[in-house]
Each structure stands twice: as structure tokens, then as C-alpha cells.
Amino acid sequence: MKLHLVLNRDGGTFSTLDMDAFRSAARALLVASGHEATFDVVAGVDVEEALARGADKSGIDAMIAGGGDGTISAAARACWKSGMPLGVLPAGTMNLFARSLGLFPLGLEAALAALAHSEIASVDISSVNGKGFIHQFAAGLHPRMVRFRNRYDYATRLGKIRASVQAAVDVIFDPPSFQVEARVDGASERSTVSLISVSNNPFGPDPLMFQDRLDTGYLGFYTAPAMPPAEVARLALDILRARRDRNPLLTEHRAKAVSLSFPRYRTGANMVLDGELLPLPREADFCIHPGALNVLRPVNDLLPGTVRVEAQTP
Q: Across-strand partners of 132?
């Protein structure tokens, strides 16, 4: 296969590597596996442009994106639009989509070797107001935690984890509360919540809340009512213990389509979309696009409907 790699040199693990040495090693590994490889190693501010370029590149069989969850989400949007298969090289902190694909906690070299012997699988991608996402939209607790986390200085993966823990504690003692009107597969409800989330396929039981399957054709829809600090702490503990299904305040549904509106919309309110803190829209319409994203997936962990792609000797 002819592979094009777009690597975010500012993303997570890559920020600590000699990228020239890594590129040489990666090319040798891929060529030894029967592939051709070209590279675009760019700064974080240039990564979306490079991904869009790579997804539209002629003569390329698949694009491999390397970086954190934000980089991978941008790559998925670009490949969704162009139809090019996407390979994921996990170099971030959480690597949630890579976990769903069975590519984490592999190290970078092992993940690249797995991609060199992979299948093309069709998986789902979701969208909110037309913008694609591969993990989740969240409003309430999660955006407030990210905003609090951004107050702290961190330069390493461990530092980011520590800042996230401190931010989670901060949110427990200062939980948000807001009104939302939700229409879920035609049924409407108005409520006051502390948490609302829409995921691309329902989450699995893992405390990190990533998807075990990416081909169900359903959104996950999660809400929790306005909660005092003690109940927020209880919910956090239940999630950490992989017991969120036993929490009486968290509701979970599967849906084909979800629409949200915020009656008391506040300018400056935020959402999180695939880990990125963004302005919250007044209205948000979600839908899932079954099988609309082609990905490279290791051969030992296949989705239904995968197609074996043999390497072509350059």
C-alpha cells in the first residue's frame, strides 16, 4: 500500500522524540512490510491543513495520523469527507479512538507494525450540526473540568493527568446546573442537568469511557440531573470503579438521532467535542453515519465487514 503519514510533532509523545529519527525508523518498518511511505511532520497549528491535504492526496491508499485525540478527530473528519482510509498512530494522553481500534496501549513502534498488517474496516462516525466526531460531545461537568484543567501548567503527559485529577476535584465542589430540552428519536423532555453527553456509539464499561464497538449504528445518550457535590463525587467514584450502570442518577440510552436546545443559553458556555473545548451552540443536532468512516484495524481484532488489504511491494 502507498501510505501517507501526517505526524503532529507537538502532540504528546512526539513532542519528546527526535522526529527525524522516528521518521527514518517508521519508513524502514513500513518498507520492510511491503509498503511505500511519505511523511508530513508538522507543528500543531498546521496539523488540520496537513490532514486535509493528506486526505485528498492522489495516489495514496491510506493516511496514517499521529498525535493526540484532537489530531485523530481532525483526521477522521478529513477522511470521512474524502473517503480515504485512516490509520491511527496513538501519541496522546488518552488515545480513546485508538483504544477502540485495539491500537493502545501499544507503543508507537508496535502500533505502526500493527497498522502495517491491518485490515480496512468500515466504522461509524457521528456529527453535531454537520461537524464529525468520533468520541463524544459533552456539556456541563466535562467542559467545566477541562476549563479548570487549563488553569494549571503542564508540559508532559503525567502533568496533564495530574492537572485533570485536580480539575476533577475542583468540579466536584463547584458542579454546573443548566436547563436542556432534548429530543431523542422523537421523544421530547425538558430537564435541569449537571451532565449531558452524546457519544459516537455507546460507551463500554471501562472507567475511561471509550467504545468497545464502533459499528452499532447508535449514538449513546447520557444525562445526570443537577447534583450537589456529594452526588457528583459518588458518580465519579462509580465511573472509576466501572460501576456507572449502578448509579441511580445517570441515565443511558441508545438513539439514532438527538437534538438539544438550551433555553437559558449563556454566551461563553462551552462544550467538549472529542476533547476540544469549543463554544456551546444554542441548538445541537446529532446523527450517526453507520459505516461511513474507513479505518485501518489490526488483523487480530476485526470488525464485521472488514476487508483484507494486502501490501503491494514498492
A: 127
Same domain? For 20 and 102 the reply is yes
Closest-CA residue to 13 (of 77, 109, 96, 85): 109
Residues 253 and 166 in one domain: yes
**pLDDT tens digits along 191-201:** 999 999 999 99
Short-list 159, 115, 163, CA closest to 301:
115
DSSP symbol at 281: P
By the 8 A CB rule, do 120 and 306 touch? Answer: yes
Q: What's the pLDDT score for residue 267?
A: 87
d(CA 294, CA 264): 39
Report pLDDT for 151.
Answer: 80
d(Cα 236, Cα 240) in Å, to the nearest integer? 6
Q: Global pTM? A: 0.90
Per cent of the chain over pLDDT 70 is 93
Q: Are residues 175 and 96 in the same domain?
A: no
Largest Cα separation within the chain, whole Å, is 61
Dist. CA 257–CA 184, nearest whole Å: 6
In a domain, 295, yes or no: no
Q: What is the CATH number of the domain that holds 58?
A: 3.40.50.10330
Tell me the HSE value of 49 on the side-chain side, using a 13 A CA sphere.
6
Q: What are the pLDDT digits (tens) for 48-68?
A: 999 999 999 999 999 999 999
137, 277: one domain: yes
Q: Would you say 277 and 143 are in contact if contact means Cβ atoms under 8 Å apart?
A: yes
CA–CA gap between residue 54 and residue 12 (Å, rounded): 21
267, 196 Cβ separation under 8 angstroms: no
pLDDT of residue 149: 83
Q: Which residues of the chain have pLDDT under 50?
A: 302-314
Assign residue 25 a region: left if phi > 0, alpha if psi is -120 to 50, beta otherwise?
alpha
